[in-house]
Write a structure and sequence with these properties.
alpha/beta
Length: about 100
Amino acid sequence: MNILIISSSEGITLSLLRCLGLLKANAYVISIWKSSRLSRFFRFCKNYTSYTLSESSSSKEVEQLVANINDYCSNKKIDVIIPAGLLGTFFVSKVKKN
């Protein structure tokens, strides 16, 4: 199973990666907030991508990020999207189901 974590919280992301790794799931991470980016080195993280947004990001930047996430899901054949953090939850609500 391919699972995408949309992360705005590094701590939650690391916990999710550990749990998903124990389940033998392929876990991908898109980080959307400034973080230490430790999850990219975690052994259970299959792929790590960073799209850093700021508090002053325009709605056009947000729409572009949502389009990038939709494309990423199509390309990686993502089965499930899990939010990590408040901002991650916001983006999950914007992503289209294909």
